[in-house]
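User: Please predict the structure of the protein below. I'd like the answer in structure-token form so I can feed it into my own downstream comparison script.

Assistant: Understood. Taking the following sequence of 240 residues as input:
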Amino acid sequence: EAVFEELTLKRQMIAEVQAVGRPAQIFASNTSSLPIAALADGARYPSRVIGLHYFSPVDRMPLVEVIPHTGTDPEVVATVVALARQQGKTPIVVGDVAGFYVNRILSPYMNEAVRILFEGETIEDIDEALVRSGFPVGPLTLLDEVGLDVAARISPVMAAAHGDRFAAPALLGQMLSAGCKGRKSGCGFYRYPADGRKRANTRLYDLLQVPPVHHLGSQRIADRCVWLMLNEAVRCLDEG
């Protein structure tokens, strides 16, 4: 299941599927932020509900998060891990907390990239700094690929669970109001014209009322984003 990040909608899907399915059937959700326990609450067969979170683009990204809630049958966990391996993926079993593991450590990283944009660094410089430090794509490109509407849905869930450091920058709401959802809408931090040549969305500088400048340097940009990711990874380790 990979419908929108709406708890009511996902619960409805589980109820409808389990009403006509066999008790042994496994229901796996691709949710990126909603607690699996909340999805399973009220289900006919809650022990058969689990999270199976793929990453975009699914055909290229090997990592998969397997997220059992406290009542998930261990057989279900083992079956889903085996399925992911058969698909050529690398499954990791993670705790059932908001954002799980990957989005939890990724959110502060991407939020910091947007804050740096607020300070006047250019879109291209921010992305290039993180690519130089080893990431396959920059954080602003990644936000465009994920979809700003998806990020906006996830952010309140994360902030409610983990605190204000997960609050989405106001720019995301302004961009959505302007119809910029990322690649899917042809406009986000970049513009995606029909000729396929991606270009920075320079209109954002007017929206921010900040002229683009070069003052931090590539290493400082990368450090600020990566350190927040590492700090959150340590918090996850501390919490088990």
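That's the full token string. The mean pLDDT is 93.
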